[in-house]
């Protein structure tokens, strides 16, 4: 009888451990989703919009776009060029920007210029995201006040 009891105890412990594992995994996935959601506000919404905005200020390269965003945000947001260059390639394919190779500074670099189509896209994205950005600011202010007084 003690062997039977040990077997049932083992199975019960296995089930408890498995349920605990599933619960912890679900929590991790939720945290990861929340991180992605916050990150997507920047990468899917603000970064494309802001890259077009910077290019509307004048032609430049991808490294300089990241640098300008960093300067304009007082260093609070410095996007990686690993996110900017694929975006520029996508914009170039969509005819929002035009890229031309330049060697005037003794180093070959691609300089991007916003097109008329890109300027229209910038205007549309600004219009579409304005309310979302305002809502996000309100949410951040409420959460900040609740958490930090």
Give the secondary structure arrangement, pairings included.
Elements: H1 2-57, H2 62-72, H3 81-93, E1 97-102, E2 109-114, H4 116-148
Antiparallel strand pairs: 1-2
Helix pairs in contact: 1-2, 1-3, 1-4, 2-3
Helix fraction by DSSP (H/I, runs of at least 4): over 70%
Distance between the termini: 61 Å
Mean pLDDT, to the nearest integer, reads 85
Share of residues in strands: 5-15%
Biggest sheet statistics: 2 strands, antiparallel
Broad shape: elongated
The helix/strand order is HHHEEH
Task: Please tally the helical runs, counting DSSP H or I stretches of 4 or more residues.
Answer: 4
- The number of E-state strands comes to 2
- Widest beta sheet: strand line-up: 1-2
Radius of gyration: 25 Å
Give the helix/strand class.
mainly alpha
Poorly predicted regions are: none
Could you describe the 3D structure shown?
There is one protein chain. It is built from four helices and two strands. The model has no long low-confidence stretch (mean pLDDT 85). Helix 1 crosses helix 2 and helix 2 crosses helix 3. It has a two-stranded antiparallel sheet. Strand 1 and strand 2 form a beta hairpin. It has 149 residues and is mostly helical. Helix content is 76%, strand content 8%. It has helices at residues 2-57, 62-72, 81-93, 116-148; strands at residues 97-102, 109-114.
């Amino acid at each position: 009888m003690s062997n039977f009891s040990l077997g049932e105890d083992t199975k019960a412990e296995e089930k408890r451990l498995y349920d605990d594992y599933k619960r912890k995994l679900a929590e991790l996935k939720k945290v990861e989703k929340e991180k992605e959601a916050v990150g997507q506000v920047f990468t899917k919404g603000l970064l494309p919009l802001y890259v077009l905005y910077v290019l509307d200020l004048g032609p430049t390269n991808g490294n300089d776009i990241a640098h300008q965003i960093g300067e304009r945000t007082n260093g609070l947001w410095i996007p990686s060029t690993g996110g900017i260059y694929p975006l520029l390639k996508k914009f170039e394919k969509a005819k929002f920007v035009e890229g031309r190779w330049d060697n005037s500074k003794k180093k070959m670099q691609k300089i991007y210029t916003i097109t008329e189509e890109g300027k229209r896209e910038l205007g549309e994205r600004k219009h579409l995201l304005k309310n979302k950005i305002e809502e996000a600011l309100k949410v951040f202010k409420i959460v900040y006040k609740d958490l930090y007084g």
